[in-house]
Design brief:
The protein is an all-alpha fold and about 80 residues long. It has one helix and no strands.
Amino acid sequence: MSESVIVAIITGLCAVIGQWLISRKSRQEDAIKQAKRDQHLDDTIKSLSDRVDEHNKYAKMFADITADIRLIAQDVRYLKEGKL
């Protein structure tokens, strides 16, 4: 084989190996970025879930308070009417 063919083969192999290394590093960086995005999304979902749970707790308390107010209003009516 002539020297120019050997040089072309070596150059081609170096180019292929270089591109493979660049591609591998790029995939690793993309995987790290995706993991960070997933973690951020998980944190956001957890935060929203906590807020919904807190809201539901207050909504239940409000329903209980409303029922208590109705009972108090009924007791007040009975007291005004002298039935109690």
